[in-house]
Inverse folding.
């Protein structure tokens, strides 16, 4: 029965992916769902993409080991999403760009910021790989297949539904996954686990009051969660790309805030499930095994299949979101950079790599990178170190330049470039000196160096040209249209510029920016 439920779930993902294809008419639909998601779809899909395997299986495992204090990992994600939604989401949505690097180019007016796409691509690729490995472990147990076959099955399904209809397919599948996670965690696993543990009194009797100590996991660990995950949520391409799907700044702001509240409850629920399991099912050595163990122990056949499907859903939503983010960055930022390095003109490189160019090319990028994810996931047993390096470079190297562009008008392109370069070098250098990529210090040193260089270089270099800042401020104010003198008639919004392209005047078509397939 459980196997049948998982198979039905996987088949449903492909069907919803095919349904999404019918709504995908151009590249804006493929990459950002046409920028027209309303509150319900936006909230559900945002919650789905940020709550992956680490939040679901990992959160329960932390609750098993540290009690209620195990909630801090997911809480840090919720805080990051809340800050992003309240402070930046509406402004990000108004920019009408596709990638973080395009935002940097728009704000600072320098082409070299596209190099940040390499770091972002490495981060999103490894995020997709780790999620693929995670749900493949569940397939190993359920289907009795070896690791490689499990990776191919899961990775192939994610690649197929992501490439068929792009963000529309991912949005529809994410909504199914959101519903599954809600039912599996809140309405099945939590009440069953809590009842089996004897409620609050039973947990205190068996584990002591320390189970409800909010600081049991350690202050250093809590700080690290907030530095890595909260800051990572503010600047990750996979998260920004969901912000781009909102149909209005208001949806981006309040839909994201609702998703953050959901994440907070999800983190508390996971910790409560884990500590309940510790009360009636002690002795599990590997914390990541707790979720599956209590599912099989306390739930009847059928219900346990739904809960296992919820875990798979959590991992697949993260994998698919990271995959399309990788494809978008590869085409919009990395490929133009590669072509320039090989002597192609910037205009030519941008014209042939513009994500608005056509749906088929975007689909090809998803397929090729999906295959790459499957290959890497099949070859590597443990990519935690690689993902940590990508996360540390993402935060240590890019955070200051990205957020600084929103909050400090005096910041310059030179300051941003030096900040990203120095932050990245210091982060990697500290890892090398310490000989431990999992240490906390590299990201702290990288952030401090990045901030210092950003401020100093910005103050000693010429201000950002007024023409660049005008385009930036007009976008943030929602004034991306330009009216002719004496004309008050509204016009259609200008097309989203390709990397390196100056936005065209309203009503003027861009030869490099077709929106039809």
């Amino acid at each position: 029965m459980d196997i049948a439920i998982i198979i039905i779930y996987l088949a449903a993902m492909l069907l919803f992916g095919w349904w999404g294809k019918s709504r995908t008419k151009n590249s804006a639909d493929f990459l950002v769902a046409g920028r027209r998601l309303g509150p319900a779809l936006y909230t559900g899909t945002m919650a789905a993409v940020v709550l992956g395997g680490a939040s679901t299986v990992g959160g329960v495992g932390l609750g098993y080991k540290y009690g209620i204090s195990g909630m801090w990992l997911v809480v840090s994600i919720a805080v990051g999403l809340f800050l992003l939604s309240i402070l930046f989401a509406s402004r990000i949505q108004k920019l009408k760009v596709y990638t973080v690097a395009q935002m940097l180019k728009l704000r600072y007016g320098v082409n070299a910021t596209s190099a940040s796409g390499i770091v972002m691509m490495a981060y999103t690729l490894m995020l997709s790989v780790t999620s693929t490995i995670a749900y493949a472990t569940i397939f190993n147990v359920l289907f009795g297949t070896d690791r490689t076959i499990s990776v191919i099955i899961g990775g192939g399904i994610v690649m197929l539904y992501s490439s068929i209809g792009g963000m529309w397919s991912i949005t529809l599948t994410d909504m199914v996954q959101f519903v599954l996670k809600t039912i599996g965690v809140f309405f099945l696993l939590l009440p069953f686990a809590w009842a089996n543990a004897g409620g609050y009194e039973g947990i205190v009797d068996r584990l002591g009051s320390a189970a409800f100590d909010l600081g049991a996991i350690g202050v250093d660990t809590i700080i690290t969660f907030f530095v890595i995950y909260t800051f990572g949520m503010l600047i990750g391409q996979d998260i920004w790309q969901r912000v781009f799907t909102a149909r209005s700044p208001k949806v981006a702001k309040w839909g994201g805030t609702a998703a953050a509240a959901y994440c907070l409850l999800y983190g508390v629920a996971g910790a409560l499930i884990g500590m309940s399991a510790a009360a009636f099912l002690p002795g599990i050595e590997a914390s990541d095994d707790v979720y599956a163990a209590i599912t099989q122990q306390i739930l009847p056949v059928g219900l346990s299949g739904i809960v296992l499907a919820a875990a798979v859903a959590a991992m697949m939503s993260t994998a698919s979101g990271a995959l399309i983010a990788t494809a978008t960055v590869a085409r919009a930022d990395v490929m133009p950079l590669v072509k320039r390095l090989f002597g192609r003109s910037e205009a030519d490189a941008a014209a042939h790599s513009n994500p608005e160019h056509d749906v088929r090319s975007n689909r090809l990028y998803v397929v090729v990178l999906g295959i790459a994810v499957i290959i890497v996931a099949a070859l590597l047993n443990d990519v935690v170190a690689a993902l940590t390096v990508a996360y540390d470079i993402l935060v240590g190297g890019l955070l200051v330049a990205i957020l600084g562009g929103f909050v400090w008008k005096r910041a310059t392109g030179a300051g941003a470039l030096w900040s990203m370069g120095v932050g990245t070098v210091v982060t990697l250098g500290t890892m090398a000196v310490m000989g431990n990529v999992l240490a906390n210090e590299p990201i702290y040193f990288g952030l401090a160096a990045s901030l210092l260089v950003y401020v100093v270089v910005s103050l000693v270099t010429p201000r950002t040209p007024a023409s660049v800042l005008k385009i930036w401020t007009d976008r943030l104010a929602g004034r991306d249209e330009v009216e002719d003198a004496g004309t008050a008639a509204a016009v259609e919004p200008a097309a989203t510029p390709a990397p390196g392209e100056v936005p065209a005047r309203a009503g003027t078509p861009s030869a490099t920016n077709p929106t039809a397939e």
Remarks:
- Residues 481-517 have pLDDT under 50 and may be disordered.
